[in-house]
Amino acid sequence: MSMTAALNVNGMTCGHCKATVEKAVSAVDGVSEVAVDLAAKTVTVSYDPDKTGEANLKRAIEDQGYSVL
Questions:
Q1: Which of 63, 2, 68 is nearest to 32 (CA)?
Q2: Would you say domain 3-68 falls under CATH 3.30.70.100?
Q3: β-strand 42-47 against 3-10: which pairing, if any?
Q4: Where are the domains of the chain?
Q5: How far is it, in rounded angstroms, from Cα 33 to Cα 67?
């Protein structure tokens, strides 16, 4: 079973930011899909709750220098 998290992320302004966040979140074990919406400043993630959780997703984004609201 897969879960979806929608995270509000501050600091993403360009295609490079989008790619950086997508790559970082995709690398988290259990993540199956990542969609970044720069205009809305959101990251939508589908993941396996048996392998990871929102705390790990937030950490992956924050480790790239962005803040999760």
A1: 2
A2: yes
A3: antiparallel
A4: 3-68
A5: 20
